[in-house]
UniProtKB/TrEMBL annotation:
<comment type="similarity">
    <text>Belongs to the class-I pyridoxal-phosphate-dependent aminotransferase family.</text>
</comment>
<dbReference type="GO" id="GO:0030170">
    <property type="term" value="F:pyridoxal phosphate binding"/>
</dbReference>
<dbReference type="GO" id="GO:0016212">
    <property type="term" value="F:kynurenine-oxoglutarate transaminase activity"/>
</dbReference>
<dbReference type="GO" id="GO:0005737">
    <property type="term" value="C:cytoplasm"/>
</dbReference>
<keyword id="KW-0808">Transferase</keyword>
<protein>
    <submittedName>
        <fullName>Aminotransferase</fullName>
    </submittedName>
</protein>
<keyword id="KW-0032">Aminotransferase</keyword>
<dbReference type="InterPro" id="IPR015421">
    <property type="entry name" value="PyrdxlP-dep_Trfase_major"/>
</dbReference>
<keyword id="KW-0663">Pyridoxal phosphate</keyword>
<dbReference type="InterPro" id="IPR015422">
    <property type="entry name" value="PyrdxlP-dep_Trfase_small"/>
</dbReference>
<dbReference type="Pfam" id="PF00155">
    <property type="entry name" value="Aminotran_1_2"/>
</dbReference>
<dbReference type="InterPro" id="IPR004839">
    <property type="entry name" value="Aminotransferase_I/II_large"/>
</dbReference>
<dbReference type="InterPro" id="IPR051326">
    <property type="entry name" value="Kynurenine-oxoglutarate_AT"/>
</dbReference>
<feature type="domain" description="Aminotransferase class I/classII large">
    <location>
        <begin position="26"/>
        <end position="376"/>
    </location>
</feature>
<dbReference type="InterPro" id="IPR015424">
    <property type="entry name" value="PyrdxlP-dep_Trfase"/>
</dbReference>
């Protein structure tokens, strides 16, 4: 049978984690926290399980969680979100992205994607019969040239996928980016899929510029978020999409045939957590900024060039002063030679190009970060 995704293999995240396990290496590759979810969240989950909340949730999500999500969007971004009409709880951001793409993209449509790009965007566009149009952003600043974006828009362009804070570059979009995006979207009648899974992890007191902050942009946007990143529970695979009512009703038609609904007791536990401990979300940026700074400080004596990390839990290192290997080869070498697993940047580019840059995930215990840095400083 002919493959529907002939270019797709096993994800780099699975590959590097398997390699890390095989070599007993420190795993700074796949992005997931080494520490546990908050105690209250785990307690509430078990309580809802024990209380018998173990049957299907309504397909769009448990109302208590939809409500808390809408309140969070209002508290953080001043957005007026109708919980019942605009919020859909999904199996992680991955499902939200997939369904948002199936909602918007028709055969022949083009979607603008910025490389380095998260790995799930392009296959989802391809499965919808669309074509991803890749615009490569480059080290060290990964800046978007909005004139280049405007030049890439054609009559077939349906939308643009943005991701801020960005995986893997750790850059955030600024007010000028959002203004340029808004102008482009209005001029060409486009939609935006805004991947904001690291929304609560921005550094140096910078605000997160959600597409939800601007009602005009929000009217054209499907905003995707992930509880896995915010509550250190990537294994729960819960996230959501906030979109205008008309788009949400199309989104839900697809969502109900992908999963129908998501894990009921965990939805209730997350609603409790948002309601009872809002300070968890507010403390997340400082929590990760400490880890970013610890890692950067510990790498000062290394021969890597450290690129700025403005948000997310990633840090990029340029290794061109250390090795002439390509980045995939360099990451293989790192695991084997010093027992540190990282992700090569070239896998995030449609054309596989590389600037001799690797990604480290610093959602790890301080001791893990210090030990990894010590090993990296030996090179
Ligand atoms: N988008 C980005 C940019 C991500 O980094 C991730 C997770 N690594 C996801 C989406 C998927 O999130 P989830 O685990 O909630 O499906
Ligand atoms: N998003 C995570 C990362 O960037 C990995 C998620 C996954 O393994 N699919 O590392």
């Amino acid at each position: 049978m002919e493959s529907k995704l002939p270019h797709v293999g096993t994800s780099i995240f699975s590959k590097m984690t398997a390699l890390a396990n095989q070599h007993g290496a420190l795993n700074l590759s796949q992005g997931f926290p080494e520490f546990d979810a908050p105690e209250r969240l785990k307690l509430r989950l078990t309580q809802h399980v024990q209380a018998g909340m173990n049957q299907y949730a309504p397909s769009p999500g448990m109302p208590a969680l939809q409500q808390q999500i809408a309140l969070l969007a209002e508290r953080k971004y001043g957005a007026q979100v109708d919980a019942a009409a605009q919020v859909t709880v999904t199996a992680g951001a991955t499902e939200a992205l997939f369904v948002a793409i199936q909602t918007l993209v028709r055969p022949g449509d083009e979607v603008i994607v910025f490389d380095p790009a998260y790995d799930s965007y392009a296959p989802a566009i391809e499965l919808a019969g669309g074509r991803s149009v890749h615009i490569a952003l480059r080290s060290p600043d990964y800046r978007i040239d909005w004139q280049q974006v405007a030049a890439a828009v054609t009559t077939k362009t349906r939308g643009i996928i943005i991701n801020t804070p960005h995986n893997p570059s750790a850059k955030t979009l600024k007010a000028a980016d959002m203004a340029a995006l808004k102008a482009l979207v209005a001029e060409h009648d486009l939609y935006v899929i805004s991947d904001e899974v690291y929304e609560h992890i921005t550094f140096d007191a910078q605000p997160h510029l959600s597409a939800l902050r601007d009602p005009t942009l929000a009217a054209r946007a499907m905003v995707v978020a992930s509880f896995g990143k915010t509550f250190h529970c990537t294994g729960w695979k819960l996230g959501y999409c906030i979109a205008p009512e008309a788009l949400t009703s199309e989104f839900r038609k697809i969502h109900q045939y992908v999963t129908f609904s998501c894990f009921t007791p965990a939805q209730l536990a997350l609603a409790d957590m948002l309601n009872e401990e809002p300070e968890h979300v507010d403390a997340l940026a400082d929590f990760y900024q400490h880890k970013r700074d610890l890692l950067i400080e510990a790498l000062q004596s290394s021969r890597f060039t450290i690129l700025p990390s403005e948000g997310s839990y990633f840090l990029l290192l340029d290794y061109s002063a250390i090795s002439s290997l390509d980045d995939v080869g360099f990451c293989d070498y790192l695991v084997e030679a010093i027992g540190v697993a990282a992700i090569p940047l070239s896998v995030f580019y449609a054309d596989g190009s590389s600037d001799k840059v690797i990604r480290l995930c610093f959602a790890k215990e301080d001791n893990t970060l210090l030990e990894a840095a010590k090993r990296l400083c030996q090179l």
